[in-house]
Write a structure and sequence with these properties.
Structural class of chain B: mainly beta
Radius of gyration of chain B: 13 Å
Radius of gyration of chain A: 13 Å
Shape of chain B: globular
Order of helices and strands of chain B: EEEEEEEEEEE
Largest sheet of chain A: 6 strands, mixed
Order of helices and strands of chain A: EEEEEEEEEEE
Number of strands of chain A: 11
Oligomer: heterodimer
Helix content of chain B: under 10%
Structural class of chain A: mainly beta
Strand content of chain B: over 45%
Helix content of chain A: under 10%
């Protein structure tokens, strides 16, 4: 059974204070690891796909990295508009659909 | 471009009542999904449809039925609602293959069962 664990559950940062969110996973044959952003009252919004260990993807102040057991979402010099819940998900070899973690609730204070 | 549209956005039911959640996408995607999101549980897959005419169970299918009406529409039915089905329901769509993990979600349907 695929498992995804995200930490921390919640994180409060000052504007400009860089940090990282962690996603640990256990899957049988990783087809892809995905990061989503979810704003309150909205559906998740796709951010990144990572396929293999060593791969990195960047978008504005966000950078996602992947190892064989975990992924990190690095946030550099965050702004208040980066406040959201960040979800990590995996897709394994024989599965349709994704297995999601519980998310990290990120708050950036001005 | 509307993307994924869900109706209704809010619904209150009494235990034992039935209802159908509607979902439509205008991106010509083959795959569609229904997830539920509960506090502390994350998103869990209820049912999915890899293509028109096919449906399969996900992680938590009990108490639900689905219909893939055509390529655009995928509905979720609760035949006899229970308080445990109080949740936020999300419909999503994607392309199969390498695009399968890039899900496009609707804004959710918030269901309360009393």
């Amino acid at each position: 059974e695929d498992q995804v664990t995200q930490s921390p559950e919640a994180l409060r940062l000052q504007e400009g204070e860089s940090s990282s969110l962690n996603c640990s996973y256990t899957v049988s044959g990783l087809r892809g690891l995905f990061w989503y952003r979810q704003d309150p009252g909205k559906g998740p919004e796709f951010l990144f796909t990572l396929y293999s260990a060593g791969e990195e993807k960047e978008k504005e102040r966000l950078k996602a990295t992947l190892t064989k057991k975990e992924s990190f979402l690095h946030i550099t010099a965050p702004k208040p508009e980066d406040s959201a819940t960040y979800l990590c998900a995996v897709q394994s070899g024989g599965a349709d659909g994704l297995t999601f973690g519980k998310g990290t609730h990120l708050i950036i204070q001005p | 471009n509307a993307g994924v549209t869900q109706t209704p956005k809010f619904q209150v039911l009494k235990t034992g009542q039935s209802m159908t959640l509607q979902c439509a996408q205008d991106m010509n995607h083959n795959s569609m999904y229904w997830y539920r999101q509960d506090p502390g549980m994350g998103l869990r897959l209820i049912y999915y449809s890899a293509s028109e005419g096919t449906t399969d169970k996900g992680e938590v299918p009990n108490g639900y039925n689905v219909s893939r009406l055509n390529k655009r529409e995928f509905s979720l039915r609760l035949e006899s609602a229970a308080p445990s089905q109080t949740s936020v329901y999300f419909c999503a769509s994607s392309e199969p293959g390498t695009g399968a993990g890039e899900l496009f979600f609707g804004e959710g349907s918030r269901l309360t069962v009393l």
